[in-house]
Amino acid sequence: MTSPIGEDDLAAWIDGRLSPERQRLVDAYLEGQPDVHARLREQAEQARALASLFAPIADEPIPATMRVAAIRGRQRQPRWQLAIAASLLVAVGFGGGWSSARWSGEPRAGIAALANEASDNFRVYAADRIRPAEIGPDQRAMLIRWTSARLGERVTIPDLSTAGYRYGGGRLVATPHGPAALLLYDGPQASKLAVLTRPMQIDKTASMTSTSSGTMGRITWAVDGIGYSVVGERPAAELHPIADEVRRQAGAALLS
After folding, report:
1. Can you tell me the distance from the alpha carbon of 63 to that of 17, in angstroms, rounded to the nearest whole number?
2. CA 165 to mean position of chain CA atoms
3. pLDDT digits over 24-47, tens only?
4. Residue of higher predicted confidence among 153 and 62
């Protein structure tokens, strides 16, 4: 006898841990529950975004100093030796990729963090050929209402057609600093562009900064507590005119 669909099944659906048979049953159930299906899709997308964000750290090998054998060895040491070792550990870090510099060196706030959030979400959603956007380009008003309500700030969808980019839809995404609006654009020769915007706790007003992440260029700035990051697989210098247009239209919308 087939057991009914429960919360464990829904949680496993989000994580992609269902057996093929159970997957078919849950998919059939969700077809008749559009509200539940939409909520689970959003949670699954947020989980994938967060997994992508922390993937570089998760893939690093465990340092030798943190392996079980090393920890057991330290437990057998006299207490005064443990105290000295702890002091040295704080002073020089864990070593290798897990050093204290590795952690403190990653931007955790401000426009530097916003730039990383933009490129992380770009990697996840711009490459999605099935459903990169949660709300399509024909439902702009819905996206603006939804994201503006969640961000507590008015969201604007810039028109970048003069730069050769057509708006392809958007979605709400999760970041370590709360929700953000991700706007996706299709450009020449199947190129992609994204604009990420969210409220800022620090760097509430910051001039445009050019950075890169792999093959991606990024232009990031903040105005009156709202941060923006334009990201695409182009050199940052080529994105500057597009970023200028995004800033111009966002400023005009706030004044209207």
Report:
1. 29
2. 22
3. 988 998 888 887 888 788 777 777
4. 153
